Amino acid sequence: MKQRRLWPAVVVTALAFVSACGGSSGSGSAKDGITVWVDAARLPAAQAYAKAHPDKKVHVVTFDGDGNGATTLQTKIQLWNRSGKGWPDVIFSEQANDPVWMAKAPFDFAAPLEKLIPENVRSQWPQTSTAQCTVGGKQVCLQDNLAQVVLWVNKKQMEAFGYTVPTTWQDWAALGEKVAKEHPGYIVGNIGDSFSHWIYLWGNQCPLQQLEGDKVKIDPTDDHCTRAAALFDPLIKNGTLPPLSVFTPDFAKKYGGAQDKVLLMPGPSWYAQAVFDQALHVPAGEMTAANPLQWGSESPVTTGQVGGGPWIISKHSKNSAAAADFVTWVTTVFNPTGKDARPGYPAYAPLAEKWLQALASNPYFAADPTPALKTAADQVWAGWNLVTYPDQPVWSDKVVTKMVAGDSLSSLLPTLGSALGDAAKAAGYSVVGN
Question: Are residues 234 and 278 in the same domain?
Fold first, then answer.
């Protein structure tokens, strides 16, 4: 594949090029600059860094980001380890749990950041975010963004129907029952994405990934799991919580467009425009955000997370100072505005404030969504930990496909727990239940 020089110091390469060349690029020597692997969404950040630092050599490789449970990086790191060369200096992953296995044998890729990035910089990330990047007592990544779940609201349509925005899961479910009768075809959410359990079960404190050392608690019989599933089942059955992915053409056709039928949707911060504007083409002036839903009167309110993609520096890098400078810049400085704005809520607190200010004045929204996003940033439940095995394919295979066929979520919880347990054991964890 032909390389395309964008600025004097940056070359962008597709993954196919690296494969064709035997993966020889990366971690050569300090004078060679740095090699950075990114997904398409992070490419503008890498390009902007190179443009702002014309004296630095940056070789950017685009790849699938390890998204949706892919194992691209595991395969590549094993190849680089066997050959003793080819490791990139920096990797961005769409999978928040990738640093967990990257920091452990046999991969042994992720470098501790304590000596690379000052503590006064790293301390500006939320505690939950830092905890997700900490493996064996060492911080091995910086999250690019937060992906806290809020309740997305179609303000225009809710007002047209005379509905009040719910504040509890119970009120939300009751509204779903009402919508099914009064306005069939409209929805209050969806539960068919590979990450839907991170929205609906994580936020409701269902212990499916609770770590203590090398032990993981997987207990789908816990009341936090069963009561949530029982609440969701009638909505799945009546069509207001369909088991479809928001990224499918079928979903966009049924619920998107100028006559969109999305009334409410629990979802992460990046849904703001990536889903409603760009994927579903919901018109401007309709959507805003409300605080995460509360379970009854229980306190504190907790929510889930879908994303929080990490930047990881390679311990094999011959130019770790330059790699650290790159990661610091793209997470603490890069903040374009307008149509080129960052898609997600920045994890670095000072940058988040600037991003929120721009979002608040974005004419796409019917009302300012930023208070809810800011509130939710501190409400991500800490009892759902990141593990080395991919859980999203398990959810898709064992739950989503069966819900599409008509099975209830409640009936599928035991199967989900068993399959997650098998995945955990295969990854070397001891599994405990109730």
Answer: yes
Phi, psi for residue 277 in degrees, rounded to 5? -85, -55
pLDDT in tens, 89-99: 999 999 899 99
Query: Taking a C-beta distance cutoff of 8 angstroms, is the pair 116, 311 a contact?
Result: no
Residue 106, exposed/middle/buried by CB under 10 A (0-12, 13-18, 19+)?
Answer: exposed
Number of domains in the chain: 2
- Residue 170 gets the label, from left (phi > 0), alpha (psi -120 to 50) or beta, of alpha
Give the CB-side neighbour count of residue 392, counting CA atoms within 13 A. Answer: 23
Q: What local confidence, expressed as pLDDT, does residue 185 receive?
A: 98
Tokens of 426: 């295969």
Read off the amino acid at residue 71.
Answer: T
Same structural domain for residues 11 and 110? yes
Dist. CA 113–CA 134, nearest whole Å:
10
Query: What is the per-residue pLDDT across 409-428, written as a single tens digit (0 to 9) for each?
Result: 999 999 999 999 999 999 99
CA 3 – CA 14 distance, rounded (Å): 9
Task: Tally the C-alpha atoms within 13 A of residue 239's C-alpha that lie toward its C-beta.
Answer: 12
- The mean predicted confidence, pLDDT, of the chain is 92
Which pLDDT score is estimated for 283? Answer: 97
Q: Is 23 helix (H, G, I), strand (E, B) or coil?
A: coil
What is the extent of the structural domain holding 83? 4-146+307-357
Question: Could you tell me where the beta strands, DSSP code E, fall in 239-378?
Answer: 264-268, 287-290, 310-313, 345-346
Of all helices (H) and strands (E), which one includes residue 92? strand 90-92
The rounded distance, in Å, linking the Cα atoms of 31 and 49 is 18
CA atoms of 335 and 55, how far apart (whole Å): 21
